[in-house]
Every structure is written in C-alpha cells, then in structure tokens.
Amino acid sequence: MSFKHYYLLLVLMCSAASAQYISTDETYTPLQLIENVLINSGCASVSNVTVSGGNFVTGENSWGYFNANGSSFPFAEGIILSTGKITDAQGPNNFVSDDGNGMSWDGDLDLNQALNITNSINATYLEFDFIPLGNQISFDYIFASEEYHGNATCTYSDGFAFLLKEVGNPTYQNLALIPNTTIPVKVTSVHPDIPGSCAAQNEQYFDAFNDTEYPTNFNGQTKVLTAKSAVIPGHQYHIKLVIADEGNYRYDSAIFLKGSSFELGVDLGPDRTFANQNAVCYNESLTLIGTSAGALSYQWNFNGTPIAGQNTATLNFNPPYLSSQNGTYSLKTIYSATCTTSSAIDLNFAPQLVTGQTSYSYCDADALQDGITTITLSDIIPTLFLNLPTSYQVSFYDSPTSTTPLSNSYLNTIPLHQPIYAKIDNNNCYTAIPVTITITVFTDTITDETICLCNNTPVTLAADSGYKSYLWNTGETTLSIQVTVPATYTVTIENADGCNKIKTFTVIGSEIATISNIIISDLIDNSSVEIVPSGNGNYDYSLDGVRYQDSPIFEHLSGIVYTAFVRDKNGCGIAEQEFNLLQIPKYFTPNNDGFNDYWNIKGINSVSPNANSIIYIFDRFGKLIKQISPTSLGWDSSFNGKQMPADDYWYYIQLKDGRSAKGHFTLKR
C-alpha cells in the first residue's frame, strides 16, 4: 500500500470515528441562533437578542451551535447552553468537564428566584423578545449533566430554567418543569432508582447513563422534553433561556435546544391519551379549534399526512371511533408565503368495551368446604373484556361506588355467591361492570389410606367410586390401579361440579420374616432367648402365638420346648420355629414314687446336637460320684450300689456345642 493510500485510509477512519460525536460551532451570532436555528421560520418576529456566558481566556464560548454530526444524538442540530466550554461537550464521554474555576463567573438572579436557590454561579443565558402569531409557543430540549453519576445523582444538580413573561410584566414563569407538575427539571428530580441511595424520581423522563462511546461528554441526560406555554397572539413576550452551576464550578451541565422546534402556533388543548388517563370517550364528541387571527389558510394532518377536505380552523370528531384513529393530529396554519406554523395534539379514542363472561365459578380450594376461598382476580380480566386496550388498568371493588380496590388474591366474604365490580382505573369513560363469583364446594369425605404390599405381590388401589373422573399420579384415569412398588400414590377425584379432592395411598413394602437365628441363654437361673429375624417388614414376637410383643427378647423362661413366632405387623404372614431350652432341676426325690426319681438336665434328646455330651456329678468334697449321658434316665442317687445320703451335690456339664455349666442341686429323702 502506498503512503498516499495509507494516508487516505487513515483520514477516512478518523472521519468515521469523529462522526460518532456531536460537533460545536462558536461562529453563530446570538440572532442567527434564534432566527436561523431555533425558530428557522419566516414567522419570527424577534428583537432584543442578548447572550451571556463564560469569558474564557482561551476564547471559547459556553454557548453556541451544535450538530449531531452523523451521531446517534436525538437532535440533528440546535443551540447548546453550558456551564462550561461547549467544545468540552463533544464526545466521547471520557473525562469530567469541570470548566469555570477562578473566573469570577457570576450566577443569575432570575434563575435563583425561579429555583428558590441563592448560590448559582457560572451562568449562561440567551434571551430575546418575540411576538407570537398563535396562542401557544413550544420547543423541545434535553438536559445533560456530568452530575449524573453514582450517589451524586441523589444529592447534587446544576439548575436551568426557561423563563417567560409578557413584556412589561415583572414576573417570570418557568417552562422547564416536569410535565403536568410545578417541579423543575434537575438531576435530582429526574433519575432512576439508585440502589442503596435513593428511589427513582420521574424515571419515565430519564434517558440513560452514558458509557464512553456517547455523542456527548456528559454522564447522563433526560429524554426529549417539550416546554410550552399559552400566549396572547400579537403581544410582545420576553424569554430567557438560562443554565448555571449550583454551589461550585464542579461537574458541568448543558441544555440542548432542538433546531426548528420553536413553534408559534395555536393551542389545540391538552393531549388526550391513554397514558394521560384522559382519552376521548367512546360516546364523546370532540372539536379541535385552531382559529388564528391573520391566518390565510389551514390544513389538518393525521400522523403527518394531510386529511382530505379538512382545511378549516376546526376539526370535528364524532362516535363511533376506531383504534386506527389514534395518533397525532396537527394543524398547519399559513399566514403568508414565508410564514407557516404547526400545532399538534395527540388523541387516543377509548373504545366501547365489549364484555364477555361476567359470571365465574370456582371450587373451594381449602380444607374447610364453606364456600369461602381465595381466587386470583386478574385471571378474570382476559375473558371479562374482549377488546381491552393494553394500557387499561382494571381493578375490582366490593360495590359500584367503592374507591378501595380489592386485593388481587381475593378471599370472598359472602359464602357460595359473591358480587364484585370491575372498574377501569385509568379512564373515566366507563361505569362499573358487575361480576358474579360462585364458589362450589366438595363436601364428601375422602379418606387417605395406608396399604401393605406383601412379599412383592401386586396390590390394587381403589379410589372412592361414584365421581366424574379420576387422575392418578401415574397418569392412569381408571377408578383403581394395580401397583407393585412401595411408594406414595395419589388420585385426583373430580366431582360433577368440576371440583377436586386428592386421595393419598401410602403403599408400604413388607414381607413375611425368616427366623435367621434364636440366641439361647440357658443353663442359668434366668433362661432367656432372643429371636433374630431377617426380611423387609415391621415385626412383633411371641412364644405362644397369642401374646405378641415388640421386643424379640424373652426372659424368665422355665419351659423346655418352645415355638418362636415372628409376625409381620402389616399382615404379610407369621414365621415360626421350634426350639428347646436346657433346664437344670434344683432337686430330685429318688423314692420310687414315679416323680423326680432321677436327676438329669432336661431339653436334650437323641437327635439333639448335644446328645453325646457328658455330665459329671460330685459330692460336696469333690469326689466324682457319677458320670451320666443327657439322654439317659439320669442319676438314681446310688454310688457303687449304695444310696447316697440327702445332701447337696455338684454337677459339671460339658456340651458338644462348646458350652459348659456347673452348679449344685439337692438330693432329698
């Protein structure tokens, strides 16, 4: 690439970059700014133009002309008045404009009085006299400021005013106000919510906080606002457009006045819009009057397009209306070949509302089926009104004359049947619409059930019969279902009125037990057993099959042959197993009467694992008297053919299962 081509590309790139920001021009005279930029019409009758601003040693001005310069700034061109150098107002937004320090740059007494302050400094103003042709003036503007940043947004603001008075009248009125209020436009009066610092103020008129790549070098600005006032045609007026820092020179601000926006037309009345809550009613006739002395001709327009045949000073509207008639109506008034004014009004026409459903039935949704329940009133609106404009706000009231809206989550106060009334809150064209609320009850008792699923055998869950429909949480719609898995199952039962109740089945898995072990503690004075089951169930225990207990442990057992019973509490069956306890008699009476003639332990038979165990009997001196088998009759009290005397004798038992025991018993004569 040649140097020439490279240089051309660089120039084009720089030009493209600079086109992102506004440009300013300080060569315009004050009269040129008013006549050729702000008014830009042959209708102007301007005199006594005066300007004042900062006297910077470098020669820059705090007032002048600006051009959007291909950027996204809302105004193509206009006038800028600043508390600093207007050259510093050009983007990008990459430094804080802080001009005016140490210049003895005074404030403005008229501004102080208009804003009720005493400490303005660094004031810039542009003022002039004019004679209006119509009965209204208006112009568009934007307020921008470096004070739109952080918490300062809540606390600090420079001030500005558009001060108007009839010549000879000592009192100004300020046109730079929040629409439909007496509040001056400031940083502190127009901003969004600042978390942790302050709530939003007139946020609908705030535009944005700016990043670096913005057409101006200000941190934020308002949306496009319109200043307007009624005037008397042919009378001379004086207007002063003024801005100043408040308190100190820090953080400059500016007002941007849109070029060609200063209109000298007629007042067609306030905008009648949905947003302003004053739309033209569906049954109302309206006449716009734009009569102006000295006018040669008129032309009415709708959304910028001439309305055929409407070339008089009035425009009439009569019902019925269509939504296609909503828009901006303007009147072009021609006074001469070089003087044409335009006046505009926004009109919305409220439609005649078409009501649909006005009676609604709901099921009593709480446990107490008394015809009192909570409903969501906003759910009614889509079917109550069939052609409701999106901007309409509907509320409900307990009487046609009530001014206290009902809660959207509404608990009716009259059981079963409740009348309420719907009203359009933000439009006074309509009367209250009566709405009937019916609450249907489901009074039948539906009882939940707990059912056991035994040994993985399928079980049938049956809902209460005689109702309109059934919907199980399994997706089935039959009266009953069969399940094979323990879980919680629900069925929604719908009655003939369309109301529902839910029945819950808690299915518990269970099974008959397996007795895996019986832990025996015998050969002691207090024999006991512990029954050890296995299985998925909830069990209780018995040794006689009649009396059951939750504990698997049984104590103080004196019998020999027992049966252990393990019962599933959910009815899935009873497991049983016989077992023996070994009992050691405390005495015996060998007198050949057939009772207790032999001494031996009890509970071991020939098929017992301990059948081959050995029992040793000793006298009190430790002499072995007898060795017996637990399956024999036992000891008959003899030793070497002689009967032993009555006394206590000792035993030692060694069982084949590894257990052993020793103790004593009594031989009684």
UniProtKB/TrEMBL annotation:
Q: Tell whether Signal is among the UniProt keywords.
A: yes
Query: Quick one: signal sequence residues?
Result: 1-19
Do you know which Gene3D superfamilies this protein is assigned to? Immunoglobulins
The UniProt record lists the keyword Signal: yes
Q: Which Pfam families match?
A: CHU_C (PF13585)
Keywords on record: Signal
Which NCBIfam families does the UniProt record give? Answer: Bac_Flav_CTERM (TIGR04131), choice_anch_L (NF038133)
Task: Name it.
Answer: Choice-of-anchor L domain-containing protein
Organism from which the protein derives: Flavobacterium paronense
